[in-house]
Design goal:
By secondary structure, the protein is mostly beta strands. The chain has three domains: 138 residues, 3-Layer(aba) Sandwich (Protein Transport Mog1p, Chain A); 129 residues, Protein Transport Mog1p, Chain A (3-Layer(aba) Sandwich), CATH 3.40.1000; 125 residues, Lipocalin (Beta Barrel). The chain contains five helices and 26 strands. Strands 1, 2, 3, 4, 5, 6, 7 and 8 form an eight-stranded antiparallel beta sheet that branches. Strands 9, 10, 11, 12, 13, 14, 15 and 16 form an eight-stranded antiparallel beta sheet that branches. The longest helix has 13 residues. The chain is globular. 33% of the residues are buried.
């Protein structure tokens, strides 16, 4: 028996009851108690909605429609309504379900909080089974919207954080292991974050990061990457330095995306080892999960003082970048239509006396664009302000040096507040990478 979850949008923010299993299957989250007896049936399905449904009544109707798609569903009463302590309203209806010659009980539940909404479906073989798990189900519904909490940390791991939905948290010898994985025929991935104990910050954030990379990342993975690192300030005010090697290998030769995050507040830092592998690398959900975790992080005893990220001296030099794209286009009949190639070159000179000059040239087969400007510059935390013919702002995303390749400065694309992706900071279509003239 398969419930069609393709009709419906995003998972509810639920927490799995203790002793229950949870897995994702065909765009839905399937939960089940661990002690369901042989020959018995009890399952909770949380479909992923694909679009906004609307009212609470419409959500219940959608839930009933999903159940009815597997057989004949007959409601036994009108929908009962309620709400939980986290602002979610719900309406539910219980009915009989005739499917494949079997008689089951089914519960269709719609939940809504403002624009957030979701559906919970329950199947049970008998009223006795439904009653047996009524209390864990009630706890599940009452807990929708509650902040996920991590297990109590070990004696040395003091970082406070929220575990993203769908991840597990396990104490290990070196710290806390956060993990999300799937191993199915067409979808395989493994994401691991290892949170280590906090420690004092004795040097600049950049120098500390490079030291921790050498201490934690190099001994575990085969990597030739010299981290920049990328750095920016979280909304919470905590600083983060990070970098990833997409070509790293484990000790047994398995290719992985491996790296290190370093959170910093006041004079304390927390290293977080990162290993990402599989089909969801670069996905929006993975990026959202990591972002939510990092934004929730607090370092006890670090104080409210913000850790410095960049120094103006880091940015001094003559920087440049260039790129070219060779292409042509064809007509509807397939004939050659023209040249669509473009090339750009940009330079930025930042002097110690806080003067700057910049130039940009863009070329196509039919157009040439040239822009030049000069004036003064200043650094406001991670914001580079250029005051010339007009004020321009660029976010500094990273600056560092590779002994083999030279020094690089990464700036935001245009005047857009942005960061490099945590899961793929060196991927395409992000910031602009400038190289310093030797």
């Amino acid at each position: 028996m398969d419930l069609d979850a393709s009709m419906i949008p995003a998972h509810l923010p639920i927490q799995v009851p203790p002793g229950w299993s949870s897995r994702e299957e065909d765009g839905a989250r399937l939960l089940a108690p661990g002690d369901v007896g042989e020959g018995k049936t009890y399952a909770v399905l949380v479909p992923e909605l694909q679009k906004q449904v609307g009212s609470l009544a419409a959500l219940v109707e959608t839930a009933e429609t999903l159940i009815a798609a597997t057989g004949t569903f007959t409601p036994l009463s009108s929908p009962a309504r309620g709400h939980n302590d986290h602002g979610w309203e719900y309406a539910l209806v219980i009915g009989s379900l005739e499917t494949d010659g079997k008689a089951l009980l089914a519960q269709a539940t719609g939940m809504k909080k403002g624009d957030e909404e979701g559906i919970v479906l329950v199947l049970a073989d008998t009223a006795e089974t439904m009653e047996r798990y009524s209390e864990p189900l009630r706890t599940l519904l009452q807990g929708v919207g509650a902040s996920p909490t991590a297990p109590a940390p070990g004696p040395d791991v003091d970082l406070r954080y929220r575990v993203p939905a769908g991840w597990t948290a396990t104490r290990i010898e070196s710290g806390m292991l956060l993990e999300r994985s799937k191993n199915e025929e067409y979808q395989k991935y493994l994401f691991r974050l290892v949170i280590l104990p906090s420690e004092p910050l004795h040097d600049s954030l950049k120098k500390t990061y490079l030291a921790k990379w050498a201490e934690f990342t190099k001994p575990v993975f085969e990597t030739e990457l010299t981290p920049l690192p990328l750095m920016h300030r979280l909304k919470s005010g905590t600083a983060i330095a990070y970098d990833m090697d997409s070509r790293a290998k484990t000790q047994n030769g398995q290719g992985v995306n491996a790296g290190l995050y370093l959170l910093a507040r006041g004079k304390r830092v927390v290293p977080i080892g990162v290993v990402l592998f599989g089909s969801e690398l670069g996905s929006d959900r993975l990026e959202a999960d990591i972002t939510a975790l990092l934004e929730s992080a607090e370092i006890p005893g670090a104080g409210s003082e913000k850790t410095a990220i960049y120094s103006p001296d880091d940015l001094l030099g003559e920087w440049s970048r260039s790129s070219a794209s060779l292409a042509s286009y064809v007509t509807a009949s397939g004939a050659y239509g023209g040249d669509a190639s473009i090339a750009i070159a940009a330079s930025l000179v930042l002097n110690a006396d806080r003067s700057f000059s910049r130039a940009f040239t863009g070329l196509s087969s039919s157009t040439t664009i040239q822009q030049n400007d000069s004036g003064t510059w200043k650094l406001e935390d991670t914001l580079l302000v250029l005051t010339g013919q007009e004020r321009k702002e660029k976010w500094v995303l990273g600056v560092g040096e590779d002994p083999r390749l030279g020094a690089f400065l990464v700036l935001s694309h245009g005047e857009i507040a942005m960061k490099q992706r945590y899961s793929d900071p060196r991927g395409d279509f992000q910031g602009e990478w400038f190289k310093r003239k030797a």
